[in-house]
TrEMBL record, chains A, B:
PANTHER family: 5'-NUCLEOTIDASE SURE (PTHR30457), 5'_3'-NUCLEOTIDASE SURE (PTHR30457:SF12). It comes from Xiashengella succiniciproducens. This is 5'-nucleotidase SurE. It catalyses: a ribonucleoside 5'-phosphate + H2O = a ribonucleoside + phosphate. It is found in: Cytoplasm. Nucleotidase that shows phosphatase activity on nucleoside 5'-monophosphates. The lineage of its organism: Bacteria, Pseudomonadati, Bacteroidota, Bacteroidia, Marinilabiliales.
């Protein structure tokens, strides 16, 4: 396979975690296509909740499904992160100028970003020094309405075209359903998922099994500078986040406690 | 199933990503058992590279495999993150006092922490306000020698017993092979994996497939305060990291650029 090289226009890599057939992926391609040549590499099936998983114990498959002027689409058996790695090392002859991931069917705000394959796809771009943005819409239905989101994605993309992105920083953009009142740059809300496993029994053997269910609990309800507050109030939320999550405050604290001197040579 | 309640001693939850049979898991149990009652819930097969994946499209299985004084072991069909969720909501009647994950067979330093199921298992504990630590040894062989590591894990655990851990902060501890010269508290090195996919062809169909290979590249070679430097010099590396990776510097920068005023209502 001949690798895809950059032509006159910016080269834009697109992935997602809902799979190559997802409506949100088509919306994202529609949004960014005016800005450059688009190459999509997306999972051939749903990869929601796959986080930054990579496939190391199985081989990966890669198939071209569409090729037209300014747009080439591949599907892969891998995760979003695998898709980006395949793109960079097997499909593209030049480093892409931008990476966009999504538009995810469903929220990836607050702590949910850690579970998201869509956000991980964007992170993988940031690992490779590519300006990368994850987009999600707060509607997880397969037939979600992306009509307001397309225009908004385009405007956020224009911001990045104009101002660039800092090295090691990725953007996580969540958009409310329907009309979007505006954009807020915010921090990730403190929150958690409270699981409620539904226990059932196999009809033949009586063996128990569990379906994970759960509901999100916002632990940051008083604050107005979070992504959750922003989305609750009808705005799109942009959370810039770093690839290096080291807590330097704790580094200093542990050093000042003298812990390094207290743990001697192992024996 | 009756839930396991806390007795007089601290309740310690243990998981990993190499699976319930892994030598590193046994080493970790040996290390922390003196400090409390231990409940292990680990994947029934290897989950390396599964990151923070959760199982939402399949049911989960959970089986008790051992019960003795001060130690109960379960295996689950899920990922490390699933295991922790099952522990908190189905197995334990009280919140555990501590969570330890590992000892991973192989490094989870620098950017590799993002791909690691072992680190994600610990993160899931931090999400639930449990002091949580991931441990890894720089030897990915199934028969790795954990004899130096056990004593070191014990000392790091004693630090946490004495000083506690800040809310929202998780510890990622990597240990070199063999003798350990001491402990250093450090930041995550900048680096990346450069993939080299090995392309092969199915014997019957001729269809191509790809095996992911790769090598780590340290992009932070001049610095002496990173986990990579520390490990290269024979020390164990403790990187404290935050669950909220928001880059507040970029939040301020984008706000000062006036981006919020420039993105109006969608239409």
């Amino acid at each position: 396979m001949e690798k895809i090289k950059k032509d006159h226009r910016p080269l834009i890599l697109v992935t997602n975690d809902d799979g190559v057939q997802a409506k949100g992926l088509k919306a994202l391609v529609e949004a960014v296509r005016p800005f450059g040549d688009v190459v999509v590499i997306a999972p051939d099936s749903g990869m929601s909740g796959m986080s930054h998983a990579i496939t190391v114990t199985r081989p990966l498959y890669l198939t071209k499904v569409l090729e037209e002027e300014g747009l080439t689409i591949f599907k892969s058996s891998g995760t979003p992160s695998d898709c980006v790695k395949l793109a960079l090392h097997e499909v593209l002859g030049d480093k892409p100028d931008y990476l966009v991931s999504g538009i995810n069917h469903g929220t990836n705000s607050s702590i949910s970003m850690h579970y998201s394959g869509t956000v991980a796809g964007a992170k993988e771009g940031t690992f490779n020094a590519i300006p990368s943005i994850a987009f999600s819409l707060l509607d997880h239905s397969a037939d979600a309405d992306f009509s307001h989101a397309v225009n908004y994605v385009r405007q956020v993309f224009e911001l990045v075209l104009e101002h660039g992105m800092a090295e090691g920083v990725c953007y996580n953009v969540n958009m409310p359903k329907g009309e979007i009142k505006g954009l807020r740059v915010c921090r990730q809300a403190k929150g958690n998922w409270i699981e409620g496993f539904e226990k059932r029994y196999e009809p033949g053997t009586g063996k128990p099994y569990y379906w994970m269910t759960g509901s999100y609990v916002n632990l940051d309800t008083d604050a107005e500078d979070t992504d959750e507050w922003t989305l609750d109030h009808g705005y799109a939320a942009l959370v810039p986040f770093t690839i290096d999550p080291t807590c330097m405050e704790t580094v200093s604290r542990l050093k000042s406690l003298g812990v390094e001197d207290r743990l001697p040579v192992s024996n």
